[in-house]
Structures are given as C-alpha cells and as structure tokens.
Design brief:
Shape: elongated
Strand order of the largest sheet: 4-3-5
Distance between the termini: 136 Å
CATH topology of one domain: Serine Threonine Protein Phosphatase 5, Tetratricopeptide repeat
CATH architecture of one domain: Alpha Horseshoe
Number of helices: 21
Order of helices and strands: HEEHHHHHHHHHHHHHHHHHHEEEHEHE
Low-confidence stretches: 432-441, 459-531, 541-555
Length: 555
C-alpha cells in the first residue's frame, strides 16, 4: 500500500511540474535582476527552470553528503542484519531438529544461534536448549531452563507449561496443580492450564471456583458457547447434590439453573425433584420429572416419579407408571416401568403384556429378568422361569452410566479414571453391544417369545393305598385236629397290643363241621398259682403244637 502511494505521489508531482511549466510558457515575460550595479535580464521560463534545477542540485548534494556521513553505520547495520538472519536461520533449523528428535543437530544449531544472536534478546534460544535437554534425558537442566523462562514475562507461560509437564512426569501432582493454577490465573485462555485446574477443583468439590474459571474461559472464547453451558450445567448439578442434605432450597435453585442450560440433564432433574419433595411440593417435583421424561425417557426418572410419595399403594404406583407411558408411548422404558408396577400390584396379565411388548422393542437383560419374576409369581413353572433366565444370560445388558470404560451405578460429574468433566454417558457398555437388526429379520425378543414352553399341567397325586387294612379280627377255623398238649395258645388279635396280658387257656378239640359260635366261645381256664403276673412260663417242647396258619402277620 505504501509503495503504491509513493508511485502515485511521484506521478502527481511530475504532472504538477509539467502543468506549471506549460502555464508559464503560455505567459511569456522577462525578469530583470540588478545586483552590485549590474542588471541582468532573462526570460521568465529560463529563470524558473534555473531555480528548479538549483533546488534539485541542493537536494542531491544533501543526500550525497548524508549518505557519506552515515555510511559506516549503514555498513555496520548491514552486517549486523546479515548476522542476525544467519542466527535466526540456525535457530529455525535447530527447532526443526529438536521436533524431529535430532538432539545432536539441535545442540549444534543452538550453539551457532547463541554465537550469532544474544540469548537475552532472543528467548527462543532457551526453548531450543530445553528441548535438546529433554531429548537427551537431562531433565534437571531442562527444569532449570523452564524455571528461568517462567521468570521472564515473554516466556512465562511456556516455562510454566514445561514445569507442569515435568512435575506430572515425576508424579509430583501437587506441584503440577500449583503450576497449572498459576498459569490459569494469569492466562485463563490456556486450555491445558484451565483443564488441569478445573479437574482439580472438581475433585476437591470446589464447585464455585470451578464455575468461575469456566466463565473466564467462556469470556476468553476458549470454549464454544454450547460446550461451556453444558459443562456449567454439570458443575451446577454436582453442587446441587452436595447441597441437597443441608440446603434443599439452594440445591433446588442450582438444579433448576442446570436444567435451563441443559434441558435433558437427567441428574439435575432428579436432584430438583428431590429438593421439591423435601419441601413437600409434590406437584412441582412431578412436573419437573415429566418435562425431562418427555425429552429423554430414563429409568431413574421413572423410579423417582413412581416412588415420589412413600405412602402410595401398589395400585397408585401403577397409575403413575401408566401416566408416564401416556407421555411417551411405545417406548422401552415406559413399557418396563408399567410392567414392574403391575407386577407389584399383582396384575399379572398387564405385567406380562407390557413386558412382552418391551422385549419386542429391545432384547435386554432387564426385560427377561422381569419376565422371569412375572412367571414365578403367576405360574411358578420352573421350565418357563429357566427359559427367561437363559434368555437373560444371552441378552446384552441394559444401558448404564459409562465413563472411560468404567461402569457406575450412579452418575458422577467427573470420571474416576481420567478426572475428565462430564465424562459419564447413559449407554450400553461397549463390550455388551448387540449387532444391528437387519430389516425384515425377526428380533431376538420375538424368537424368545416364540420358543417359550407351554405351562406344565400338574395333576393331583393319587392317594396311596395303605399296606395293611384294618379289619375286625375273625376266627380262623382250621381243619379238625386233636391237640394232646396243653400249651399256652396265642390268640389272634388286632395290631394294637392288649392293655392286659392274656390269661393262658387250655385248647379244646374243635371239629370243622360241628363248630358253632357257642362252642367257639367255650374255653377251659387252667388254674394258675405261684408265678408272677408278667412271667409267661416255660413251654413244654413235647406238648407244643404247630401254630395255625393265617394271612395276617403276627408279632
């Protein structure tokens, strides 16, 4: 731009000069000059031309004199500039060599640059020396150079960065945190410093300081607006969780601010609902959960909504679950929460219908376990229960809070693995992902329902017949025999033992044809003296007669 202006000015000057000469030429005249008694006459155009030539000669003479006077300085400046250019060329080559890992060339170029450029005037020489020291493994020298750079305002940020990296390498996390905080306070636009400081403040639970640093990053345009608002919502939610027990009102305000920044943030909605419930404001708590449920049906939202009031019966919880289903119909989570509530209310028909519909939408472990519970409560069929349990073992897991490969039962603001803010996502664990369902193929839920065995019919067991029939004792009439001996006969009696010992009787001759009841009742009682009542006496083997054969077992 400057060159163009100069060229334009030169042409304008030439045009003005030409115009002036032509104007004077059109108006001829003479000039008379008397000097020391002499008169000099000349034309006007000649006099003007001589005057312009004189001025030009004076300017050229002045330029020549000034050039000769300043030539030594110009020569020195020329050579100094050439030397500086050579130094910067060596510095550039050294930095490239350091980036490539060539420590020998980096050292050589550093020495050349130091000889051509003053180190106090060019801080990049220290940077090159530090990089060469790191490549060669001389960390003590590198830390010394970084410390020197941190004391120089021009290289302060670079020096702090080097000290931060070295502290993390040595495991001095406290020192690294201090370097990061120092850099973040001086320059919040540094991403590495702001990130490290933010993670530390989150681990320590200093939510207000973390929010203030995040606002500084937003003002410095380090983060995009939507990203900054999302992170701020996460920090406000974490702050609300800490305030919930001691300050329900403060927790409610923080959670509502988070919901304004991120409308679908499930943990913020749950904290806000809990804060409302502590204030006995069930209507606002339900409204808050309903708004988030419309955006993102989540099982934690459903559980908090259904069990908002502890005194509700199972039927009341079922009605609330059906209300959620009406807000988000034909949804996996909506069907599951209704099925669970129906099972608690002993409405097995509805529970089974909703659970089977959920299984058709998504084949997951949770829905099969629920079907097993329904089967156990309704039919108790072990075959069908084992079928659903087997399907649950094969099915992928339901979504969970996952951050950096870590699966957690609850949401947390930072990752326990890396410390990253807003790392948790509600998704299926990566090792449990199921393959995509091609269009036209039968889903796994349909296959599981089709392979369900029928309910087993269990018949009442037959009543076992008793081994022994209790019958009245009957008298067996054996063939006519003559019994010469007088042994003590054993009477045929029922299984129950008699209360008193039977008295010995003398057998008689009984004929099979002449036996009458009167004759059967006759018995000759042998007199008994001298033995104790419990002594049966000694049988005479010679007089013993064979016992009568009966179908009863005697003992």
């Amino acid at each position: 731009m400057t060159t163009i202006l100069k060229v334009l000015f030169f042409f304008a000057f030439i045009l003005a000069l030409g115009f002036g000469f032509s104007w004077i030429a059109d108006r001829p005249g003479e000039i008379s000059l008397i000097w020391e008694g002499q008169q000099y006459n000349t034309d006007l155009i000649v006099a003007v031309t001589a005057l312009v030539a004189l001025v030009a000669a004076i300017m050229v003479t002045w330029w020549l004199l000034r050039t000769l006077w300043t030539s030594p300085h110009s020569v020195r400046r020329f050579f100094r500039a050439r030397k500086r250019d050579r130094g910067y060329q060596a510095l550039s080559t050294g930095l490239i060599a350091a980036g490539a890992g060539n420590a020998i060339l980096a050292r050589k170029m550093s020495a050349r640059a130091r000889s051509l450029i003053r180190a106090d005037q060019e801080p990049l020489i220290r940077v090159l020396d530090a990089q060469a020291a790191l490549i060669e493994g001389r960390h003590d020298e590198a830390r010394r150079l970084f410390q020197e750079m941190s004391e120089d305002p021009e290289t302060r940020e670079l020096g702090l960065r080097g000290l931060y990296v070295e502290a993390n390498r040595l495991g001095a996390h406290e020192a690294a945190r201090q370097y990061a905080e120092t850099a973040a306070e001086a320059a919040p636009y540094l991403p590495w410093a702001a990130k490290a400081t933010l993670e530390h403040r989150c681990r320590a639970g200093h939510w207000d300081d973390a929010i203030r640093l995040l606002d500084q990053q937003k003002i410095a345009h380090v983060l995009e607006r939507h990203e900054a608002e999302r992170l701020k919502a996460v920090l406000l939610t974490a702050k609300a969780e800490d305030q919930l027990e001691a300050e329900p009102a403060g927790a409610r305000d923080s959670a509502l601010k988070a919901l304004k920044l991120a409308k679908g943030l499930v943990p913020a909605a749950i904290v806000a609902a809990k804060a409302y419930m502590r204030e006995d404001n069930l209507r606002k708590a339900s409204h808050t959960l309903e708004q988030v449920w419309k955006l993102d049906p989540h099982p934690e939202i459903a559980r908090a909504y259904v069990r908002a009031r502890s005194g509700d019966s199972a039927v009341d919880r079922l009605k609330k679950a059906e209300k959620l289903e009406a807000l988000k119909p034909n949804n996996y989570e909506s069907l599951l929460i209704v099925a669970e509530a129906a099972l608690d209310a002993q409405d097995f028909k509805k529970a089974r219908a909703k659970a089977e519909a959920a299984a058709r939408i998504a084949s997951r472990e949770r829905v099969y376990l629920l079907l097993a519970d329904i089967e156990e409560a309704e039919t108790g069929d072990q075959g069908r229960i084992r079928h659903w349990m087997g399907q649950a073992l094969k099915a992928p897991r339901d979504a969970a809070w996952v951050a950096d490969g870590h699966v957690s039962e609850r949401w947390m603001p930072i990752s326990p693995v890396t410390g990253r803010l807003d790392a948790f996502e509600w998704k299926t664990p990566f090792d449990q992902l199921a393959g995509p369902i091609e269009e036209g193929n039968v889903s796994e839920g349909e296959k599981a329902l089709a392979s369900l065995p029928p309910v087993a019919r269990t018949e009442a067991p037959a009543r076992p017949e008793p081994e022994f029939e209790t019958a009245k004792p009957k008298i067996v009439q054996p063939e006519a025999r003559v019994i010469d001996a007088e042994p003590q006969a054993k009477a045929i009696e029922p299984e129950t033992p008699p209360a008193k010992p039977a008295k010995p009787v003398k057998p008689v001759v009984i004929a099979s044809g002449d036996a009458t009841p009167a004759t059967q009742e006759q018995a000759v009682v042998e007199p008994f003296f001298g033995r104790p009542p419990d002594d049966p006496g000694v049988k005479d083997p010679a007089l013993a007669a064979p016992e009568a054969k009966t179908r009863l077992k005697l003992f």
